[in-house]
């Protein structure tokens, strides 16, 4: 009898130890979970105070995880959840978790060697961006793509460069703005830092079918700027437009320095047109047609979005202006605007916007859009600009 009692005590003692161990594990897991939640909340509060969009960084983290990763996390807690039943193996493994953390911290994907090269070689990785104001025309993964073209795509025009009319000689060492001051004040100034960005449908006659080669000295984004100028002037808004072809005018042209070249253009424009209320740097995106086109009322439009350089210490002012213009587009033609994006860590990320709180970078369409689609979008943008300027204030002097 005595031996049986001793054996029974040992059994209950083992159960007690197991219970204590499980309790300890439960407390540790609960504590880690609570700590994670607190850190996420603090990160959200910090982002809200800094960027005015608390969820953008968290969305960026979530988008780097695969659906399978989330499914396997749920499966660990819900025994009867099979993660959709369509995958073999699991994503939530030490290797997968390590790869995710490495990519989150360094932007290098260990399963994609290109990401390692992209971190070191110019042009291999586009400038990453976060959404400041999302538009109804945006889709997941629609962040701006701005890739460095090859040397063969950008070269001085053979003999007849794109015209650059200038009313007076520009300051020594600066290229002309190509903006002729007409009667009345110029309230809008349009220019193109990447003035040769072009469109494949308009380059068929030249045999160009590769989007990486969609650059041209004559048929390019400058036509979009010209259309915008014409529509604004039709509305009685004085507009100046720079048609400077930097590859032809800058000796030893370097595409990576495009914004340094166009900075002189903006400075000259501010001096010539001190009452300008809006400065627009018009670009063409590099995404393909399905990501740059919206069908509204049965008609195709090239989509529009705005980019804010957060290396500019006063970027919040530029951002608010872009949001106002985006809101007008969203009201007039829902789906046309993809929203406002901010760039802060890669590439230029300043875009001459420190020169004026009313300087915006605007992306219209991509290499697969036609001029008709671009012009429809440009006409809508002109109407939005006219509505915006009804309550705008002068751009003022360059900021320090």
Automatic annotation (TrEMBL):
<protein>
    <submittedName>
        <fullName>Stage II sporulation protein P</fullName>
    </submittedName>
</protein>
<dbReference type="InterPro" id="IPR010897">
    <property type="entry name" value="Spore_II_P"/>
</dbReference>
<keyword id="KW-1133">Transmembrane helix</keyword>
<keyword id="KW-0812">Transmembrane</keyword>
<feature type="transmembrane region" description="Helical">
    <location>
        <begin position="21"/>
        <end position="47"/>
    </location>
</feature>
<dbReference type="Pfam" id="PF07454">
    <property type="entry name" value="SpoIIP"/>
</dbReference>
<feature type="region of interest" description="Disordered">
    <location>
        <begin position="144"/>
        <end position="180"/>
    </location>
</feature>
<keyword id="KW-0472">Membrane</keyword>
<feature type="compositionally biased region" description="Pro residues">
    <location>
        <begin position="158"/>
        <end position="170"/>
    </location>
</feature>
